Amino acid sequence: MNWKTFFKERQGAILSGIVAIVIIVGAFLAINASNKNNQTDTNKDKPTTQEQENQTGNVEGENMQLPASYTVVRGDSLWKISKKFYNDGLNWPFIASENKLANPNVIHAGNVLTVPKLEAVGGADNLPKTGVSPNSYMVQKGDNLWNIAIKYYGSGYQWYKIRDANKDSVGTLSNGRPLIVPGQNLAIPK
């Protein structure tokens, strides 16, 4: 095969292909540059983590005046908020109860929550509205041990602690997974 004649005969098609590739690469670069500029512009309006902490009066390790209002930010959970205010994530049910949350697993950025003093909520006696207390949990529809462990320990990998503490009441499915049912009261070990 003679390469000179091959390229001479297809010169127009080859040049068209090269031009098309250059145009596509140029458009890709222009779009990426435009997106970076838009992200930079929108981030200018967002407060930094330090500014968010100043807005909410929330600095870890500092004693907060309670009761307090807290504006939920993206990525927050009741566990994290409880850890910020009480230095203990296990106290999140008090926040859920105070705010009469229908589903404590669902909070949204921008929600304003009241963070109560622990003495003001009457301790664990005030928590049945959420089906939760610091040492026990009433199983709700759709619950599993993994999600309950996340609520209490901040990690689903701790689910086995709940199973082991409730050997007489937690069943086992044919596939080996634990079986819990709505209305069942589970002891939650520390």
Q: How would you portray this structure in words?
A:
The model is unreliable at 42-62 and 121-132 (pLDDT under 50). This protein folds into three domains: 13-45; 49-124, LysM domain (Membrane-bound Lytic Murein Transglycosylase D, Chain A, Roll), CATH 3.10.350.10; 135-187, Membrane-bound Lytic Murein Transglycosylase D, Chain A, CATH 3.10.350. The protein is built from seven helices and six strands, in the order αααβααββααβββ. 43% of the residues lie in helices and 9% in strands. The strands form three sheets. The chain has a two-stranded antiparallel sheet with strand order 1-2. The relative contact order is 0.08. It has 190 residues and is mainly α. The chain is elongated.
Strands, total number: 6
**Total domain modules:** 3
Q: Which architecture name of the largest domain does CATH use?
A: Roll
Q: The CATH topology of the largest domain, please?
A: Membrane-bound Lytic Murein Transglycosylase D, Chain A
Number of helices: 7
* CATH level 1 class label of the largest domain: Alpha Beta
Distance between the termini: 80 Å
Percentage of β-strand residues: 5-15%
Residue share in helices? 40-55%
Task: Give the averaged pLDDT, no decimals.
Answer: 77
The biggest beta sheet, please?
Answer: 2 strands, antiparallel
